Each structure stands twice: as structure tokens, then as C-alpha cells.
Amino acid sequence: IQQYYDTTDIGTFPERLKPISRQPHLTDLDTAINYNEIFEQLQQLRLAIYAPSAFILPSQLYKYKEEESTTGHRLSIEEREQGIQRLMNIQLLKRLESSVNSFRLTLGRIRDYMQETLDAIARYQQGDKRVSVDDYESVDGDEDEQDFTIGKKKNRILLEDMDSISWQQEIKGDLEIIRLLLTMLESITPEHDSKLQQLIADLRDKFAHPINGNNKKVIVFTAFSGSHQDAINKGVKAMKERGGEYWQVPYLPIDPADIGREYEPIVRINSQSGKGGVAFIMDTYFGFKLPKSMHREFANVIQAISEKQGEVTPEQIMQAFRDEYLNSKEPIHFRKLKVDDLSDDIDSEFDTCVHVTYTDDGKEKSFEAVGNGPLDATVRGLREELGCNIKILDYDEHAITAGAGSQAAAYIHLLNAESGQATYGVGVSSNITRASLRAIFSALNRLGIR
């Protein structure tokens, strides 16, 4: 601008200072782990969790065919996964480069994913012969930090087609390393995070010695694109807990109430939003506290909508929730429940008998079954009634409203052991048992079981 335009009226631009390069240590604690020790541990990771195809039995390989890549070269599942394994180490180092806490969060999510997979293998070994796992098709270098996984799920691989014992052993070995790293990072709290403390010191120096007059502005660049909603949520919560006099919330420079606004409408959902944003909307606006393992499932529903229309409003999110879960009542629809207590019956090995009435495409049907509690009895009855092998993987419940007319929400994570598919069902009622049964039928319809 100075070379080609007359800047007499505006004056010259300020002198551009040279960048300051910082290379802080990981921590100021002499006894804590260092970068070299972390790298040594990462080098030992085999990351078998991301390469299930390497354990497919030779006799079953024909089921998992090669596919054409965009370059015309035919990439097998195994070739893709080998590339993902190599890039995974790079991704972990990138997280460590960003911050200790980012690295810790990523390790925690990988640990949880490994444990979930080991649990699936355990279910298979206990008799669920149709349990399946996912392989991955690509690596996204800018994956949202709060949803960090490597690649995108593509193919389903049945555990019965794999050497599950060898895969299990490999995962357990990696899990030990991940847990060791997390343990060794526990002592590096924010007060002992050298990079964070260096940043704080630089900011304080900037504020104490402003340049260009009284310019105290600071621009902070961060590596993650989709975690701002989670940061805002945690920031608001932390501010309330400490009872701070001043407004201090990440990404929100002022209190929205000061200009007649509320915080909630500022959290907006589009195709780039992470699962935490959708779960936050459901909790804050509508009182539904989705189980953590359900976040991804429902976020995928909302992402499909946002890819078609752009931004999704809270009302549209709630309507999608109704359509997908609460109104999933066809072809089978729960109608009535009667529960009898068998705890005094010394001849029965079960403590509950249920009489369930439902409709199948509008035709009324019913069954009677026994079990240990209404849910167990209902599942046993549905297995006989529908000829299916279903199992409850997880169950959550909570009150939506308080008072005499309160409503409860129940969440059932249901597995079809024959296909290996699992999904959530949701039910709402003033009676928690009825809400639970509605959730079971909701999941049945979503799985296509009848």
C-alpha cells in the first residue's frame, strides 16, 4: 500500500516486529515425563485398534473386497488401514504440539474407544456371534478435537470372521501404554504446564508494555475448529462455580445479557458442529440429557439435515429427535403394561412377570414373560414373540421436569446380536417403567426388527 498509494493523510504503517519463537519444556516438574519419553512410548504403539482387517481370517477375506480409489489405484482395506496407522502417530504428536491437555483428551478418547472394542470382543466370546466392528477409510487432519477419532467408519467386519483373540491381545498391549501415558501426565496440571505458563507470561507482558500507543489487543490462534461450543459451556459453568465478579468466558468477549441477548441462541449448529453442540442444545433447551455414547448417533442425524439446508435451529433439532426416537412407533407400538411381583413365589427363579400389549401394523397383540425386573422380562418376551436375539447394552434415565406432573426420559441402547447392529431408543412417560418400554420399542423399530 505504501509503495503504490499516497499515505500522506493516514501516515505510515507501524514497524512490523519480528516474531518471537518460544520453545518451552513440557513442564517445570523435574520428576514428570518429558517429550522424549512420550515419543518413546508412542513408538511402541501398534495401534491395532485401527486395523481390524489385518486380523481377518484368510478363509473370510473374500467378503471384504478391494475398492477403487480416486486415483484409479485399487486400495485394499488393509492398505488403507496401514496408512491410517502411520498417520495416527503423526496425529498424536500434533495434539501434543498443541497442548498437554489436548494430548491428554485425545489419549482419553482413544482409551475409551479401545475399551469399547474390548467389551465388544468380550460379548462375542460370551456368545454374541454376530458382533461387528468398523474399519476406517481416511484420516482427517483437522478433526474436531472433542470428537477425535482417526478416519471415518466405512465397512463392518464381523468378529466371527476375525482372529479376535490375537486382535484382543494387541489392543490390550496398546491400552496399557495409553493408560501409562495418562498416568504419567496426571502431575502436569495447568500450573505446571510450561507452554501454558509461557503464554500467560507473554500476554501479561503485552498488557504491561503495550505497543503502538495503548494497544493491548491479542489474537489467539487455536488448532481446533469445532470445540468452541464445549469451551463456552465449560467456561460459563466455571465462572458460575467460582462466583467471578467479571465476565470471563472463552469465545464470548461480553455477557450476552448486557445487550439483551441470551447465551443459548449463540450456540448454532451446522454441518461443522461437533456432537457436543447438539447434545448441549438438547439439554439446555429441552431438558434431554443424552447419554454420552448416544451423542455421535444423534449428531449424525443432525449433520445429514445441516448438509442439505445449512444451519439447524433448536426447534428443528428437537423435531428430528421426535421423528427419530420419540415417534418411532411403527410398525410395532407399545400400548399397555401390567407387572406382577413374583418375589414371594419360591418356585420361580425370576422376580417379575410382565403382560405387554402392543400393536403390529395396527393389529393388537400381547405376550407374557418373566424375568428379573420389568426390562429383563420384556426383553425375554420380545425374543420369543418376535424371534429375535436382542440385548440391552446400556440404560439411562432422568427426570425432564419436576413436580407432581413430572416426566421421565429413558434411553435404551439395544443390540441385535444377529446382525451386530446397535442403536438407541428413547421413551418418555410420567412412569419410568413405561418410559423404558417405550424406549425398547423405539429401538426395535430403528433396528427394523418386527
Question: What attributes characterize this protein structure?
Answer:
single chain, 450 residues, alpha+beta, 3-stranded antiparallel sheet, 40% helix, globular
The residue fraction in helices comes out at 25-40%
The string of secondary-structure elements, in order, is HEEHHEEHHHHHHEEEHEEEH
**Helical segment tally?**
11
Low-confidence stretches: 67-75, 136-154, 222-226
How do the strands of the widest beta sheet line up side by side?
5-6-7
Strand content: 15-25%
What is the average of the pLDDT values? Answer: 82
Per the principal axes of the C-alpha atoms, what is the gross shape?
A: globular
Counted beta strands? 10
Oligomer: single chain
Polypeptide structure, described:
- It is a single chain.
- The chain has 450 residues and is an alpha+beta fold.
- It contains eleven helices and ten strands.
- The strands form four sheets. A three-stranded antiparallel β-sheet has the order 5-6-7, covered by helices on one side.
- The radius of gyration is 27 Å and the shape is globular.
- Mean pLDDT is 82; it is low at 67-75, 136-154 and 222-226.
